[in-house]
Amino acid sequence: MDYVYGPGRSHLFVPGPSNIPEQVIRAMNRNNENHRTPAIPALTKALLDDVKKIFKTTSGIPFLIPSTGTGAWESALTNTLSPGDQIVSFLMGQFSLLWIEQQKKLNFKVDVVESEWGQDADLDALESKLASDKSHTIKAICIVHNETATGVTNDLPKLRKILDYYKHPALVIVDAVSSIGALDFRMDEWGIDVAVTSSQKALSLPTGMGIVCASPKAIEASKHATSLRSYFDWNGYLKCYNLGTYWPYTPSIQLLYGLRATLDLIFEEGLENVISRHKRLAKATRLAVEAWGLKNCCQNKESYSDSVTAVVVPTNIDSGEIVNRAWKKYNLSLGVGLNKVAGKVFRIGHLGNINELQLLGCLAGVEMVLRDVGYPIKFGSGVAAASAYLHNTIPLIPSRI
Amino acid sequence: MDYVYGPGRSHLFVPGPSNIPEQVIRAMNRNNENHRTPAIPALTKALLDDVKKIFKTTSGIPFLIPSTGTGAWESALTNTLSPGDQIVSFLMGQFSLLWIEQQKKLNFKVDVVESEWGQDADLDALESKLASDKSHTIKAICIVHNETATGVTNDLPKLRKILDYYKHPALVIVDAVSSIGALDFRMDEWGIDVAVTSSQKALSLPTGMGIVCASPKAIEASKHATSLRSYFDWNGYLKCYNLGTYWPYTPSIQLLYGLRATLDLIFEEGLENVISRHKRLAKATRLAVEAWGLKNCCQNKESYSDSVTAVVVPTNIDSGEIVNRAWKKYNLSLGVGLNKVAGKVFRIGHLGNINELQLLGCLAGVEMVLRDVGYPIKFGSGVAAASAYLHNTIPLIPSRI
Amino acid sequence: MDYVYGPGRSHLFVPGPSNIPEQVIRAMNRNNENHRTPAIPALTKALLDDVKKIFKTTSGIPFLIPSTGTGAWESALTNTLSPGDQIVSFLMGQFSLLWIEQQKKLNFKVDVVESEWGQDADLDALESKLASDKSHTIKAICIVHNETATGVTNDLPKLRKILDYYKHPALVIVDAVSSIGALDFRMDEWGIDVAVTSSQKALSLPTGMGIVCASPKAIEASKHATSLRSYFDWNGYLKCYNLGTYWPYTPSIQLLYGLRATLDLIFEEGLENVISRHKRLAKATRLAVEAWGLKNCCQNKESYSDSVTAVVVPTNIDSGEIVNRAWKKYNLSLGVGLNKVAGKVFRIGHLGNINELQLLGCLAGVEMVLRDVGYPIKFGSGVAAASAYLHNTIPLIPSRI
Amino acid sequence: MDYVYGPGRSHLFVPGPSNIPEQVIRAMNRNNENHRTPAIPALTKALLDDVKKIFKTTSGIPFLIPSTGTGAWESALTNTLSPGDQIVSFLMGQFSLLWIEQQKKLNFKVDVVESEWGQDADLDALESKLASDKSHTIKAICIVHNETATGVTNDLPKLRKILDYYKHPALVIVDAVSSIGALDFRMDEWGIDVAVTSSQKALSLPTGMGIVCASPKAIEASKHATSLRSYFDWNGYLKCYNLGTYWPYTPSIQLLYGLRATLDLIFEEGLENVISRHKRLAKATRLAVEAWGLKNCCQNKESYSDSVTAVVVPTNIDSGEIVNRAWKKYNLSLGVGLNKVAGKVFRIGHLGNINELQLLGCLAGVEMVLRDVGYPIKFGSGVAAASAYLHNTIPLIPSRI
């Protein structure tokens, strides 16, 4: 039996899983199919071609892996690195932390560059490391594009520049889980070697598909990487790509059709328009936070995330209580503060297939819940700030003009 | 192929069709079934029993008619009245007008009691008519419980009192289309003889099921009513009720399962809680309208509708432009002004399976569109007024406490 | 809660409601929409154009009526005829009988031409009536194209020839409920004035949409017909067609999208291929029946229905028991014998979106249930006869060649 | 856009992915939810309890892993074994082969006991190995319960007896992918240490959930196993089980609700009845194969699989052509012959939520396709043999008695 939710729609504003559009829910509403007919390889081939567009790569090779983002991380690492390889990895929040734990567990030598939570990756520290690494012992740089726990977006073009300056051949492996499909991400232009995303974030799908895209350099590295890998081995995929069967094991038929539908929606809206919409919703959220007199967990303006905003609450308030109450009273799901920022921040996810009035409903809900927990908010203040901005920037819906 | 809508959810705030909850969409997601197996009669029997609860009747007999509300109107009239019968009918907006046109078309003598649009039914005029109708030539009183075009709810208990005072035997036939499931409606207590509702309103279903409920007195009248009727004839149903087959023709299997699901949700929330929620959302809407400095089309405070609010716009603004722009820019569907109030009012439907944050998103959208059309609204003003009220009155979601 | 069915798919082989293809179920899996936006009229306009193709008419005007076939019948009659009008109507089974009852109820003078159940309409009797009707008192001929109760298809081209021969101006009103989309039906070529079908038959949709198509002559007649009508009045539709709003009352959004999807499937397969498929499945069914040593209820080979086969059972067997047992043991829904043929025939519906292996599964099920009720059937005999024929006639699926 | 399939239902008879019942498709037809609310852990907890029932274990601990069966294999191995550990593994078909390849890739020393494809696992060979392994260097026995490529079911109770006889402590790790939910599987009684299944097989779900169940002994082993593992590490799950959050990363909300629905259906039918149904369908299939004069790839009667039958074709026929043609002409998906038996066998999957008439439709289709490829089959022969058996053994559907 179904769990009973409150009346009306759930307001899902965690930074993933995100809201699935009706068109995608519809596309997935189907029986299984035999994956060994010609239909599924044909579908897959077109998907692989189209997935490259959202990574902005022409030379990369994508893998659609039946797993979560955590599995996709593992695929990125084990296919390109060997046990004992030295990597530089930036710690700046819960998800970079979890990834670093995985890196250690997989027996890489991880040189952790830590920032305060709320700061972006310390690229200066990287610079000095590269400067002194004449022998190129550093095999890879691992970085999250967008730290979902703190709402901080790292500067990947700058990272590229540093590497280029030092002519350092380290692979650049990027967690773009809460980034691709929401933020501007340019795999080829920025020289990313492996980028990883996941279906339930900006792609607005159910969980279950990790997407890894590998540059030719990463593919080359995979031929020599000695990390043990089986399920996540790219080689199994590459063999099937060559055979035209495309799948080393049974894919989820439903997720393939869902991916088709969500890519169709993205291309129909226009990828650049999708990115603009994320910028617009994020800016509106930040204006509301400012109007409420609260602070963004992200400390550098240039690093504000356009997919999630982590809001710092006054010290006398437990952010967990905000999240809890939002769900219990307003049918609103907000992101909790994780680990170091537990109790200190709550997060508003504004990624995926959502629009302005959904966000304003969420912001109005946050206002009420803030009042509930004793914060002296002025009702309507955040909504007003967001509306004033949105009102001027929302374009007409093209199909309705 | 699907029409392309803007990104994110559509914000559907017309006073019907209303938003279908996910649980109900799910329940209807099915193949056809043979309606002549024992399963469908068993399902129907339980539905008929449960439908009576939302009409608050124990003695009434419901008919689930594959039609819209217009067809249900016709069923109510032709089964109880004979051509040439005199009826008193109240004109106070577009839907009462359309019903009166139908009444005339069906050859009843209609004594139209007209009110200004925005006023409620003129029950004083009725009183004088009844006082002078010693011979009981008036066979029926036809009244809308809630005039959807103007957002006015009529006082049915008062109507009953007047009839009782004059001991007048006229049938009371009520259009409760935008009422039942949203407003408090008491068929037995108020002595309603025929009440009519429709699936796509407060029941949050697709269009396609007109629900008519007949009192024993109405059933008795149907035995003598000579209006021609075939499709809408209650007799066909009653025969099948007796046979236990329940259906004189093939019902929509999907709508039956949908009705089951929506009733389950209503009973789970509690019918009185559903009514309270409608009151709460309506009050919040009115507070926003007031904060915006705009007027309710409904002129008597006691008659404010809890399922729809018609908002009067300043004379220099075309309300049609508001509705148009809301759809084109904000993916927000508002109700247009109809007929006499075309261009003068727009309507916010707040009935069916919706919640507070959905409404606040809508109100924020209305604020932006009002600004778009040149009304000097203060952003956040309506949302603030609504939030201040809602914040104090929203109960915790029982299943989450 | 869901009724519990046996494991696996239900085998739905009643002659309506028919099986809904997954693509159509998907298309209908959606929230409500505001029917007053430009999107719904645009959708409707395209549907009306495309519906004409399956009626094979260019000059006819279709009406998509929220009702069952019974309502569509009423619409056909009341819009074209006046009380007291004389009509000739053919009785040859349960559905023609029910229609005649409606005709009488609606106060037309019905000259019933009765055939034995299993025979087709007695067109010779019509001929003599027309020959003697010099004054053209006969206003309409009402005939079912396909009598669903007996599996008999009437010869409409012959009917047209007779009328033409006598230059008789009577309207030809056809129940094509279990015909259009399954059988070859040519509204313009055969001079049909009103044709009626219903969503849950060959169109493979849920119940809830009656489709009526009127010739220019029928439209002209509607201007003078004095039958009372409101809900079913074509005039309401025609006004909205002119206005471009298309709907006099709220349509089912879901059924509109469902109709779009089902028409797309029909056009993709090709209407003539759809008709051929029905012929093929029907022929296979009849070969099985013959192999079983049983008789077709339809007595003239030329009149065998391609949408349903009524099978006569030996006198010592109750066909109701067959239907009952098929459902209880094999999850197979067959059509019961109705009225005069109750207990004597069971019916295999083979219309709508089904294919050969589905039918063979059904035939295998019928064999088992026949054995269950004591008929000495040879297992596999009917399936073999059907397979031998199908094997030679099934085309490759075009998209897979 | 959807791929165009032929008209009617697809007939899916590969041994996975299997047919998803409508109830399960419905349950999965939903938006995402926040997995960090109390609702998802509560749902998960109940699922874990219920999953144990289909493994027939009370002491085992299940893990629901977002992956395919291949990932579940890896989870079973890496959590319990250390690099260099010696294992005995049985090769008897394509899936055992693929698993062995994985075992080697993961650096275990694999002692492969090979059987001819079509034979069951050579347990005699095991016996001699155990007899001589006094020092218990063999750490695990890896065996498929049901080899999907050849339709052979291994004798796990016998395996247990051998181990017990020699008091050998090796872990027993079982691929029960095409077994659990179809065949009788008794984890506790048979002393299985790790059993692995997958959502898209007998559980009739989409692909995407690998289910691993670990005995207390296996859990103990996992504390000392040194194989590198991150994504598949049980420890991550166990920590979350203790915390009551249940998920180390985001699960697929849709698959969780789907699993709930499919388990509900299994328990409602009764697990033993589900197993009996699989036996019945398998026996019917084998009777058909025999009637066709063809051979089962499985060479020992006692080892016939009840979830899939591999049919050997005459040497002059290419089984690939059968599969190809079945799909192109009859919309029927059969399993191809894999690797050593490519071209030599085709496979009929009869597992999951299907019923007798579906199978008979499939068998009738196979007859036609056999004739298409030149095999002199007698139409109806297989269907007759199957029907004669099924007719006597199909029980009434309990809810319909």
TrEMBL record, chains A, B, C, D:
Domain Aminotransferase class V: where? 12-319
Supply the EC number(s): 2.6.1.44
Read off the CDD domains from this record: AGAT_like (cd06451)
**What GO molecular function terms would the record report?**
alanine-glyoxylate transaminase activity; L-serine-pyruvate transaminase activity
Q: Where, in this chain's numbering, is substrate bound?
A: 347
Q: Which cofactor does it need?
A: pyridoxal 5'-phosphate
Q: Does the keyword Transferase apply?
A: yes
- Tell me the domain of life: Eukaryota
Q: Which residues form a coiled coil?
A: none
SUPFAM superfamilies (UniProt xref): PLP-dependent transferases (SSF53383)
Q: What keyword terms does UniProt attach to this protein?
A: Aminotransferase, Pyridoxal phosphate, Transferase
Kinase is among the record's keywords: no
Q: Which residues carry this modification: N6-(pyridoxal phosphate)lysine?
A: 201
Q: Which Pfam families match?
A: Aminotran_5 (PF00266)
GO biological process: any one?
Answer: glycine biosynthetic process, by transamination of glyoxylate
Q: Which PROSITE patterns match?
A: AA_TRANSFER_CLASS_5
The record, for PANTHER family, names: ALANINE--GLYOXYLATE AMINOTRANSFERASE 1 (PTHR21152:SF24), AMINOTRANSFERASE CLASS V (PTHR21152)
Similarity field? Belongs to the class-V pyridoxal-phosphate-dependent aminotransferase family.
The identity of this protein, by name, is: alanine--glyoxylate transaminase
Q: Which gene encodes it?
A: LOC101510661
